[in-house]
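Good morning,

Attaching, inline, the backbone tokens for the sequence recovery test we're adding to the shared suite. The designed sequence is right after.
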């Protein structure tokens, strides 16, 4: 061990003499003093295998060597600093990184939401944007001829079976049809409908679908999850209201409104002067939906929710026009 210490000490002195830049000095520091792979740290770790007598003998020697190296590195650093000041700059130092651009607001919100739901035991699912009518409508208790399947809303690629998905609920039916409960899944994604673009609506938009299927699931589980989620995203002062609303794929259905973050309930163009913005639809998964996906509603129950991400993003960042999200602007307000 003493021979090894003597060898390292000799090699270090030779290497230090050849250092002429701060970058090389930092590399030398890493080689000898790095906590994980430094030569001195490695020797310190190897002390564990020595006898108590050897530890008492070699330990102080190692500590002295480490201290000498630290002091010589510091002195060398001061010397190089003085030289660089004379030169006005050190051309070997890497330039400071220039941070340009940022994540899209919708991407930021999706990542925050995924973080929340993963913490609460949810997996993140995905599915195709070009979808079959079977998964987009039929297994969601939306029979042929239902108003929600009308061409005025849906964009078909090939009638009557292939279309651009109108909601991320199609991911729910795909997962329910191919997996066995218990299931806890969220699924963000882009959706398409034949909408006239204005400040609050777009022909393509993002939704965030979530569902739970297990034994003994009640609507109280749903309300608790949605309340905690909005508090996580907007703060404990968020104000929500829950009201009954009809959705074919759930029964009972529940709409969730959030007090407008822009006007604080006073009324503005974003909330259409109502003081509240409808942020999502939800409810207990309809027994017909469970059966269509091969799940026995006598054994399992579940809840589902789907929210328009664009409105959440607008509320979160104070964006007054949905078109700014997709117009290529860097400043969204």
């Amino acid at each position: 061990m003493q021979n090894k210490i003597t060898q390292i000490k000799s090699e270090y002195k030779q290497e230090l003499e050849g250092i002429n830049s701060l970058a090389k000095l930092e590399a030398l520091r890493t080689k000898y003093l790095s906590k994980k792979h430094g030569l001195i740290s490695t020797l310190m770790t190897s002390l564990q295998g020595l006898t108590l007598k050897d530890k008492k003998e070699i330990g102080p020697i190692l500590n002295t060597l480490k201290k000498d190296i630290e002091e010589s590195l510091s002195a060398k650093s001061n010397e190089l600093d003085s030289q660089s000041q004379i030169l006005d700059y050190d051309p070997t130092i890497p330039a400071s990184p220039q941070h340009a651009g940022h994540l899209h607001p919708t991407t930021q919100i999706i990542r925050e939401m995924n973080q929340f739901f993963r913490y609460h035991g949810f997996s993140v699912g995905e599915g195709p944007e070009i979808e079959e009518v079977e998964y987009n409508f039929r297994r969601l208790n939306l029979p042929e001829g239902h108003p929600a399947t009308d061409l005025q809303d849906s964009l078909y690629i090939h009638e009557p079976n292939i279309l651009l998905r109108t909601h991320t609920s199609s991911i729910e039916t795909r997962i329910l049809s191919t997996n066995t409960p218990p299931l806890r899944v969220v699924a963000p994604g882009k959706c398409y409908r034949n909408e006239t673009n204005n400040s609050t609506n777009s022909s393509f938009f993002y939704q965030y679908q979530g569902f739970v299927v297990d034994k003994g699931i009640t609507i109280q589980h749903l309300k608790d999850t949605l309340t905690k989620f909005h508090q996580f995203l907007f703060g404990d002062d968020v104000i929500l209201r829950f009201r009954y609303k009809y959705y074919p794929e759930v029964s009972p259905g529940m709409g969730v409104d959030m007090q407008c973050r822009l006007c604080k309930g006073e009324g503005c163009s974003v909330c259409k002067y109502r003081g509240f913005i409808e942020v999502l639809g939800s409810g207990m998964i309809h027994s017909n939906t469970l059966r269509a996906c091969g799940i026995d509603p006598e054994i399992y129950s579940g809840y589902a929710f789907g929210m328009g991400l664009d409105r959440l993003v607008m509320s979160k960042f104070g964006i007054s026009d949905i078109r700014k999200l997709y117009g290529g602007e860097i400043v969204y307000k």
